[in-house]
């Protein structure tokens, strides 16, 4: 709840490793708890890598045990963060609707992402090929749309002359599959898009398909240029897993490769400043932890400095004491590492606590990793984990090491699709979808952070 660009959704978010929970969870007494069904199904979306056909022997007992887990992890013991419902949109193809067709069984699932900045909501609708901007009252202000996949706008002015004075307008642009979206302090829009199939290429050295670009629009929605790996007009990106804006309106693109990650850092004019590779073989591990296996949970860019935050989860093998044979792995610890981009050096780290699971109101021996949502100004990192009433939230100051815990409430009927955004100021907002509507909400995280009276 990730994600100026810190976002996650339960159709796209990187999976937390949960296989290590199967053995410990199924030791519990499993009870039928129908009220938790939606939460468990939502967790399946959260962990797609584990809930694969190859793992079906573990899936059924794990699902049953997860129901019990969520009953033991209710948010009543945490401080609730105040929620405000802002406005709703209908699901559909029109200019003031969001085309979440995949909810009706479309086999081609395209991304739907959004960003919130200065009270304005920018939604990238991959199914209809459009970008829309709303204010916090739900007024549609402008739209960038593909003329081939959208009907002609009715309430928005088109064919606008250069200096015309209009209040609501639309610009055509051949968007194909807009995905991740961020907005900088100039209100310039950066959005991920896909090239046509015939323009795909393949990086033989890194064994990666190159098919992504970043489109750059000005504050009114006029196209400026596209960015590739080298900058303006550059070669396509490999799979884009993160998009962020940072200090001085710099843009950060995080890409996943089979061998690791490439992080591209551009200035506000689109010039490539830094390329930071992070290899799988070079994931940081404390020197006194020789027998752990590492897994990167997330990489995010600081909104106020040339800094990357890398959350790494560590596991240890478990063994049968009688036979000394390996039986699996279990969570050992989790660390968020601070990387100075200019020096390409790790300058700090802080351990992230486990989420505490309660059984009958008492701590159990089951440990669960938080997942990283994002980092706001001054090095304050947000983490989350699903609970029965919504999500448990952890705020960890990477400088002072101070911790705060709370939770956000989400109703079961709002679980068709979730997409969250964390602004540089720490405002957490979300798109929550039921069968008929898309609801835009936010939470008073300023009070949770401690920066509001």
Considering the chains and any ligands shown, give keywords for the structure.
453 residues; mainly beta; 6-stranded mixed sheet; 33 strands; globular
How is the topology of this model organized?
Blueprint: E1 6-9, H1 21-25, H2 37-46, H3 56-71, E2 79-80, E3 83-91, E4 97-98, E5 112-117, E6 120-125, E7 130-135, E8 140-145, E9 169-172, E10 181-183, E11 189-194, E12 201-203, E13 208-210, E14 212-217, E15 223-228, E16 231-232, E17 239-245, E18 251-257, E19 260-266, E20 272-279, E21 292-301, E22 307-320, E23 325-340, E24 345-351, E25 355-359, E26 362-368, E27 371-376, E28 380-387, E29 390-397, E30 403-409, E31 417-422, E32 428-433, E33 437-443, H4 445-449
Parallel strand pairs: 2-30, 3-4, 8-9
Antiparallel strand pairs: 1-31, 3-33, 5-6, 6-7, 7-8, 10-11, 11-14, 12-13, 14-15, 15-16, 17-18, 18-19, 19-20, 21-22, 22-23, 23-24, 25-26, 27-28, 28-29, 29-30, 31-32, 32-33
Structure notes:
The protein has 453 residues and is mainly beta. It is 8% helix and 46% strand. The chain is built from 4 helices and 33 strands. The two termini are 24 Å apart. A hairpin with a 5-residue loop joins β29 (390-397) and β30. The chain has helices at residues 21-25, 37-46, 56-71, 445-449; strands at 6-9, 79-80, 83-91, 97-98, 112-117, 120-125, 130-135, 140-145, 169-172, 181-183, 189-194, 201-203, 208-210, 212-217, 223-228, 231-232, 239-245, 251-257, 260-266, 272-279, 292-301, 307-320, 325-340, 345-351, 355-359, 362-368, 371-376, 380-387, 390-397, 403-409, 417-422, 428-433, 437-443. The longest helix is centred in the first third of the chain and has 16 residues, at 56-71.
